[in-house]
Design brief:
Blueprint lengths: L25 E5 L7 E9 L4 H17 L9 H18 L9 E11 L3 E11 L6 E10 L8 H4 L3 H17 L21 E4 L3 E6 L12 E6 H4 L7
Parallel strand pairs: 2-3
Antiparallel strand pairs: 1-2, 3-4, 4-5, 6-7, 7-8
């Protein structure tokens, strides 16, 4: 199976929690069921049945489903996988004369950051339903470590305008270090700089990831950079 979280080169170790608060612990769950389509799912699941674990697991599963291009109104991941397989079988039946490779759906998550305040889980999905190429997507899901609630940027950044200015400067710096000699003019399709949809925490700082087509052509793939904590700290609501 293709490795679908290639960007986590600097996100490997978790923060240790030193207070009396007991952080969520996680297992890695693999879907073992066999399908006619090429389907795999390996994802993080909080252990136990506490309110915290249930909230985390619900939000992770919802976030995974939200990244998928499915018209099915389903809220359970295993149901979504079955529906994908059924759609593939229906396609094969209706277009038996077309010699297409098997459809693919691969889901992988990784717990990339955990502190007493915040949990960041990277969700990566790959869908292929024929054609020139499949559809890759990455989502950085930030959760409140004490409640399991999903956090958005306003929950951990106190000055969006100031942070955007900082992010633009860091983005340009990251391009200057890139051997491909790209400039900011190669991105954003002629529009001004804007923050990505996906911002998450790592051990070194905030990771910012633009998905394929978000700011550049498919050929450039994902666009990512990091802002060190020393630089971003004035804009953080969390310690």
């Amino acid at each position: 199976m293709k490795r679908i979280i290639p960007f986590l080169i600097f996100v490997t170790f978790l923060n240790s929690c030193t207070s009396e608060f007991k952080p969520a612990t996680f297992d890695t769950i693999s879907v073992e069921e066999s399908y006619e389509a090429e389907i795999s799912a390996v994802y993080s699941k909080a252990t136990g049945s506490s309110d915290l674990s249930n909230a985390i697991n619900t939000n992770v599963e919802n976030a995974i489903i939200a990244t998928l291009n499915t018209s099915e109104n389903k809220t359970i991941l295993t149901d979504v996988l079955k529906a994908f397989n059924e759609e593939y079988l229906s396609f094969k039946k209706d277009y038996a004369e077309i010699d297409e490779p098997a459809w693919e759906l691969h889901i992988e998550t990784e717990l990339v950051y955990q502190s007493e305040d915040i949990i960041t889980i990277a969700i990566s999905t790959y869908e292929f339903k024929g054609g020139a190429h499949g559809n890759d997507k990455i989502k950085l899901l930030n959760l409140d470590a004490k409640s399991g609630k999903t956090l958005d940027i306003n929950d951990f950044i106190n000055d969006i305008d100031g942070f955007t200015t900082l992010a633009k400067a860091q983005f340009i710096t990251s391009l200057e270090k890139n051997k491909d000699q790209l400039t900011i003019e190669n991105f954003f399709f002629g529009e001004p700089f804007h923050l990505p949809e996906n911002i998450g925490f790592s051990e070194e700082g905030l990771v910012l990831i633009y998905n394929v087509y978000e700011v550049a052509s498919y050929d450039l793939g994902y666009t990512e950079f990091m802002i060190p904590f020393d630089d971003v700290e004035p804009y953080l609501k969390l310690n």
